[in-house]
Amino acid sequence: MNRNYIALAYGEINNVIVSQFLNYFLHLREKNIIFDLNFLLSGKDFFEYVKGNFPYRDLLNEYGHKNWHCTFAPFLNLQFSRNVTKLIFKSRIVKDRDFIHVAHCRGLAAAQFFTPIKQTGKNVRMIVDIRGDKPSETAFLLRQAGYKEDEIAKRIKAVCAVEKHVIKNSDHIFCISHKMKENLLARNSVRADRITVIPCCAESKFKYESRIRKEFRKNYKLEDKKVLIYSGGLSAWHNSEQVFKIMGKLSIINSEIFPVILTPDLERGQQLSEKFLLPGKFILKSVKNKDVPQYLMGSDYAIILRKKDKLNKVASPTKIAEYIMAGLPVIISEDIGDYSDFILSNKIGAVVDTDKKYESITSEINQFIKEYTIDKEKISNLGIENFSKEKYIDQMAQIYMMI
């Protein structure tokens, strides 16, 4: 039977959705696997779309203006959302009974929306793409918001029930790390061969080029500096205050070290810079994704520190794949998904214990920077071999065509 491919994502269309959702389907188009992209938007995001204030419209139209759609799906009324979504997709599926309909659902929310459609026909397949450990994320965010433990326990129980339901009804599961796969196997009655690890990967544009590095360093007059870069958000789980504090201290004890921070959270970044960094001795910017590679290639070291929490133990931050692909030794905290072990075993960075006093961490990192011999080509090649999107496209394509 012929196959019809459908992809669903719930929530705001942002850099993460473009990087870890849309870009994969752009690669799959080259293999003639063309997905119908469906964005389930809440009230505010949907009305912005209707008014034409829609991010990435040009990129989506490049994908194919007839191959993407936005559906109104307010989470405030989940049953209504399910009914609307079910009506839209069931009408297509009933009309095309001669096809096998394969749905890629990004996250538990999208899978929860699609599960009723999956249950309506034998010609429907569902892949659940789990990009984070939802029970751990829920617990972390609720504790940050000051919820009591008994209320947190209730919410986690509800999230786990949703997870069990969608996994039970799925035909295959993608997840971001082997450690997350272990968690899913422990919580659910599912065979290991039904779960495939697809880490958050980087585009080939991040592959290290010495020419780009030289141009960047010349433009910013950084030829004699050891540039330490952080790229990413500054949310609660990013441990951003500790990152800024350590970068600032390093630039004081070692005048060669020059901090660079790329973040969309400029207001928060400015607050932390004023508190921890030497005035005029750093770069803080928000740049478009296409411009990030030159900053990474122009740097010498990268840093990412996370709090010791269950959600980080299974994580797969895209920025780490980008760091490695750009040829950067990575200063990383313990237990960030599969990455901490990978960096340690391949000797392409330093793994630090964030429970230590920051003076001790700073001294350890400074010693590493003084002693480490950088081989950017070697590090970049390791990134291409292990964390490039191209590496996983064939594997994904085979699953889509076979389930």
Description of the molecule:
With 403 residues, this protein is α/β, with parallel strands linked by helices. The chain folds into 2 domains: 2-200 and 389-402, Rossmann fold; 204-387, Rossmann fold (3-Layer(aba) Sandwich). Helix content is 51%, strand content 17%. The protein is built from 18 helices and 13 strands. It has a 7-stranded parallel sheet, with helices on both faces. Helix 1 (15-29) links the parallel strand 1 and strand 2 (35-41). Helix 4 (78-95) crosses helix 5 (107-118). The protein is globular. It starts with a strand and ends with a helix.
Q: What is the correct CATH architecture of the largest domain? A: 3-Layer(aba) Sandwich
Described by strand count, sense and barrel closure, the largest sheet is:
7 strands, parallel
Low-confidence stretches: none
**CATH class wording of the largest domain:** Alpha Beta
Helix amount:
40-55%
Give the strand content. 15-25%
Main sheet: which strands, in order across?
Answer: 3-2-1-4-5-6-7
Global shape: globular
Count of all domains: 2
Derived from helix and strand composition plus strand pairing, the structural class reads: alpha/beta
Radius of gyration: 22 Å
Distance between the termini: 12 Å
CATH homologous superfamily identity of the largest domain: Glycogen Phosphorylase B
Number of helices: 18
CATH topology of the largest domain: Rossmann fold
Compute the average pLDDT.
Answer: 89
